[in-house]
Design brief:
- The chain is α/β, with parallel strands linked by helices.
- Helices cover 20% and strands 34% of the residues.
- It has 12 helices and 37 strands.
- The strands form 9 sheets. It has an 8-stranded mixed beta sheet with strand order 16-15-17-18-24-23-22-20. Strands 4-3-5-6-33 form a 5-stranded parallel beta sheet, with helices on both faces. It has a 5-stranded mixed beta sheet with strand order 8-14-13-10-11, with no helix packed on it.
- It is elongated, with a radius of gyration of 45 Å.
- The two termini are 51 Å apart.
């Protein structure tokens, strides 16, 4: 129980102050005049002022509250390397025992893992949240059990008590880190892209591990190439992307003996390969209504460089016009089809027929161009069914269908085949139902399929659009020259722009239009795996993680020819995917995780905050320090010990207030003193 004197004045304190001043003046005057009862007058005045101020004796029954010590235990990824987890456990057990031995003190333990989205170790945020849940007057101290590598020091709270760091790790720790300093998100195919990286040594590096190191580089999970590079210097590495779409480049430094972890010895860069300009050669055999359709399609794409030649006057035409007056420039056939043919990504033959303009040697060169990785698209007209058909040239060896010499002149509705509903070129065009939502065409060249995939049919289920792979290249054959009817809105029109664009881009090997492909996208640690195939089923996908462990997942069909599976990656790093003959690689997590940017333990970042609270930094390797109680304002750390400040907080259970004297008694005392002063002064 605690007793204190309190006042409950009957009048405002200002009035009491004025009365006190008057009383002092009166007593002073009595003293100056030499009155013998001046001191009795003074006591009487005090008694009167006491009546007005209402003094009472207040008694409180207090229940003492325990002091709280907050322990923040770092359990992030960097705390799981070496023996740091064991060090943290031992330190926490010792701290729990020390707090339990103190009277009226309890421990709050907060465990902190990895921050979301690669935020790192958020120790100060966790400490601030723990403090917010406790009364500030009860917090006697805070202890961090960590390697000191935190990423939110700016969130440090205002501490009312000492803060200490029990630091894991060892004095001889060292680590080697591979860091990608600059990596663009995309690169132009065939052009060099500059990547910047550095190999950095941290901590107490042994003498035998200093100097140049081996750097291994692998693209899309292929065989790595090795280079010798110096440490501590930023290096510029020129990279040429090999294919369109996502390119996964992995850099790796072999693990050295004694380093803390190999998790930061590798880095993965994902770069999207794009073509700078798509070069297309369009050769029109003769003017016709659909010629403008091709030209408009290709010219509408700003990334396409179009070279278009139209044969307006065939050589066999005899009208007496001198040859020198037929054109301003000669058709550069040799330059285009012999010298610069490899510079084109796609060659389109639109209703072209053999008229002697392109010799067989040139067309054979086109065939070799396709087999070596090029692409051609043949839009056939009535000429394809004649003796002057391109099929009668060296190109016939790579065309996926042969003409039957019949030209069918009747209205028909183009239909998608089962394979067409699955093929990325025609999937989702709208022709999968009983009644496709597009208009009819009026002419078709009858074809006999030889190879490839028939994705569209016309009259009597005759092949209309056939796609094929030849060697390293692609061939597309469209058995009609009436696709332009869709662009003119005939019978409602149709998706001719989508169809022709997809055919053209499939021919140029755009990754998103590959009919047999395995791909994956990542959102954090969640991987969405997509398998495109022309088959009715797709088997399970095999996933190989960074540590070599293998998982098999069944895939679910989400659309015709498209199967998916979702996988939650347990750790960051490079994952290899296999399904049948298809393979893919994908990296989960950031290129350089913050938790492994600096792995050697250090209390440098925490020093300003700890010094401001007079706390201390102690290494667990040297032994867990004792816990002492120190007065507020005194140093809270010393050799072999750390301190907390007792707060003395309490809870008031009951309060009673009793007047020191009844008011009538105060007045009686004041009156007796006044009479005494009068009697004493009356004798003189």
């Amino acid at each position: 129980m605690t007793e204190t004197v309190i006042f409950d004045p009957l009048v405002p304190w200002a009035v009491i102050a004025v009365l006190a001043a008057v009383a002092v003046l009166v007593v002073g005057l009595a003293l100056w005049r030499g009155l013998g009862g001046w001191w009795l007058r003074g006591l009487a005045t005090v008694a009167l002022l006491a009546v007005l101020s209402g003094p009472s004796l207040q008694s409180e029954e207090r229940a003492p509250l325990t002091d709280i010590v907050i322990a923040v235990v770092d359990e992030s990824a960097s705390q799981r390397i070496s023996d740091r987890a064991a060090q943290s456990k031992a330190a926490l057990e010792r701290l729990e025992a020390e707090v339990a031995a103190l009277e009226n003190t309890e421990l709050r333990v907060v465990r902190v893992g990895d921050g979301q989205d690669d935020e790192g170790s958020l120790l100060m945020t966790a400490l601030a949240e723990a403090m917010a849940e406790e009364p500030r007057a009860r917090i006697a101290g805070a202890v961090l059990i960590s390697d000191g590598r935190l990423h939110d020091i700016e969130q440090a709270p205002d501490l009312p008590a000492p803060l200490h760091l029990l630091m894991t790790g060892h004095a001889e720790d060292w680590d080697r880190r591979l860091e990608i300093t600059t990596a663009p998100a995309f690169g132009i195919l065939g052009e060099e892209v500059a990547l910047r990286l550095r190999v950095e040594d941290q901590g107490a590096v042994p003498a035998d591990q200093q100097g140049p190191v081996e750097l291994q580089i692998a693209v899309d999970g292929g065989a790595p190439q090795s280079f010798t590079v110096p440490t501590g210097e930023e290096l510029e590495l020129p990279v040429v992307l090999s294919h369109a779409g996502m390119n996964v480049i992995q850099f790796n430094v072999p693990v050295a003996e004694g380093e803390l972890t190999d998790r930061n010895n590798a880095a993965v860069v994902q770069m999207n390969g794009v073509r700078d300009r798509l070069r297309v050669l369009l050769v029109s055999g003769e003017p016709h209504p659909g010629e403008r359709t091709w030209r408009n399609l290709l010219k509408s794409d700003s990334s396409v460089d179009l070279v278009h030649f139209t044969i307006l006057r065939p050589p066999e035409k005899q009208d007496g016009v001198p040859v020198t007056e037929l054109s301003l420039i000669a058709f550069p056939t040799r330059e285009l089809f012999l010298e610069k043919i490899d510079e084109f990504d796609l060659i389109i033959f639109d209703r072209y027929q053999l008229r002697g303009i392109l010799p067989a040697l040139y067309l054979d060169n086109v065939r070799q161009y396709v087999e070596n990785g090029g692409a051609i698209l043949v839009a056939a007209g009535p000429d394809f069914a004649t003796a002057a058909s391109l099929y009668r040239s060296p190109l016939g060896e790579i065309l996926p269908a042969a003409p039957t010499s019949r030209v069918l002149e009747q209205a028909y509705l183009p239909q998608l085949t089962d394979a067409g509903r699955r093929h990325p070129v025609t999937q989702g065009l709208g022709g999968g139902g009983e009644e496709p939502d597009w208009g009819r065409w009026l002419r078709q060249i009858e074809l006999e399929p030889l190879s490839g995939t028939v994705v569209m049919t016309g009259i009597g289920d005759s092949p209309l659009l056939v796609l094929d792979r030849v060697g390293e290249g692609r061939v597309a054959l469209l058995g009609s020259d009436h696709a332009w009817l869709w662009s003119r809105g005939f019978e409602g029109g149709g998706p001719q722009l989508d169809l022709l664009r997809r055919v053209a881009h499939w021919s140029m090997k755009e990754p998103e239009l590959e009919e047999e492909a395995l791909a994956a996208t990542a959102d954090g640690q969640t991987m969405t795996i997509t398998r495109r195939t022309l088959e009715d089923e797709a088997g399970p996908v095999e996933i190989e993680g960074p540590a070599g462990e293998t998982v098999r997942l069944e895939m679910e069909e989400v659309a015709p020819g498209r199967f998916q599976a979702v996988y939650q990656g347990p750790e960051i790093g490079l994952y290899r995917l296999r399904q049948g003959e298809e393979e893919a690689v994908i990296a989960l997590g950031p290129q350089s995780p913050r938790e492994f940017a600096e792995t050697v333990a250090s209390g440098e970042a925490l020093e300003p905050v700890i010094d401001a609270t007079q706390g201390g930094i102690r290494t667990i390797e040297d032994g867990v320090p004792d816990l002492r109680q120190v007065r507020e304002g005194r140093p809270a750390a010393g050799r072999g010990w750390i301190g907390i400040t007792p707060r003395g907080a309490y809870l008031t259970a009951d309060v009673t207030a009793v007047p020191l004297l009844p008011a009538w008694l105060w007045l009686l005392v004041a009156g007796l003193l006044a009479i005494g002063a009068w009697l004493r002064e009356g004798r003189r």
